[in-house]
Amino acid sequence: MMIDYAEFRDWIDTLYRHPEWRQELRRLVLTDEILELPQLVRELVEAQKRTEQRVDRLAEEQQKLWVAVGGLQRIIGASVEDEAAGVAEVVLRRKGYRILQPGFSLPLDGEIDVVLPLEDATGQRIWAMVEAKARLTARDVRAWSQRMRDRVWQERLKEKGFPGPYLVYAYGIRIDLGALETAEKEGIGLLKGDGEVSVPQGLIEPSVE
């Protein structure tokens, strides 16, 4: 049966006056899935909010973890440097050097972990320089030796009041197998908690232009 536009408008107006009829019409026309869609959308939105909250909490906890790890690394690093300074002082005093000042670290475009001012039996001023690592690798030893022999690096040391010559050591709580061989090849000394593992082959003199 065909209805004209006026009849259709009358039917629409009647539906607006009777909400219960509209509800029944929705049940007849729409599927259960479509009727449930608003609730599903609300549930998806709530789930997303909970996920975002969990992500935010996770980010906060991760930030706290980074801060804690950074603090722990600084503590461990300071502890290793203190231990290296103590061992170096004992070893060098036994060798006959006079310790002019307790060991200290030196920030210099890459920190020198331990600087130890010394004087030998002839009265010559010498600077013991120690690189300290919890785990000392061959790469660490090689890089440290090359840095101490670098002319630009030595110029920076001289500007800071450390003109050389330098007695160079590397210190490690745990020393990899290749570190000892590399230290001997590079001619620098090696220290552990129980003393000197290898002896420097001589002083590193400042480069002459």
Q: What profile does the largest beta sheet have? A: 7 strands, mixed
- Low-pLDDT parts are 64-77
Q: How many helices?
A: 6
Report the β-strand fraction as a percent range: 15-25%
Q: What is the gyration radius calculated from CA atoms?
A: 38 Å
Overall strand count: 7
Q: pLDDT average, as an integer?
A: 81
- From N to C, what is the helix and strand string? HHHEEEEHHEHEE
What is the chains' assembly state?
single chain
Distance between the termini: 109 Å
Helicity level = 55-70%
What characteristic shape results from the CA principal axes?
rod-shaped
Specify the structural class: alpha/beta
Task: Present the secondary structure layout.
Layout: H1 5-17, H2 19-29, H3 32-94, E1 98-99, E2 104-106, E3 112-119, E4 125-136, H4 138-149, H5 151-159, E5 166-175, H6 177-186, E6 189-192, E7 195-198
Parallel strand pairs: 4-5, 5-6
Antiparallel strand pairs: 1-3, 2-3, 3-4, 6-7
